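From the thread on structure requests for the teaching lab: each student submitted one protein with a one-line request. Submission from student K.M.:

"Model Regulatory protein RecX from marine sediment metagenome, tokens only."
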Amino acid sequence: RRIYSRYEITRKLNNRGYPENIIVQLIFWLENNNYIDDELFAEMWAQFRLQNKPIGRYKLNQELRIKGIKQDIIQKVIDKTYKEINELTLAQNLIKEKIVSSEIKNIKIDPKKIYSFLLRRGFSCEVAKIIYNKLNNF
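Reply posted by the TA:
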């Protein structure tokens, strides 16, 4: 089982029809007994995403906002996560996998598509440009 953010639990309980006062009391109890910790949730989500389907800081920010995490926690987690892992290296490893996969399928790599792919994955324009230029010069 995975852990949930405060917002996700609140939404689930609302969807199941629980009264608002019960939800507030339950969330309060869960937080006081350390069953809910949005900062821990955000850290675990960031690690999970980077290990399984690497994304850039912009996409991670967006995903955590959707999960109801406060912006100050998001910024703290993003700073910590990308301090430990270089975003350029992460993007390069992702593209290496894509290149190997396309070579096996005998497909030509289009640097413009790689650039767009990196932007969709939440990497910065600077990181995408560096990789685009490397592929164009290759």
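TA comment: The helical segments are 6-15, 20-32, 38-52, 57-66, 71-84, 87-104, 111-120, 125-137. The two ends are 44 Å apart (CA to CA).
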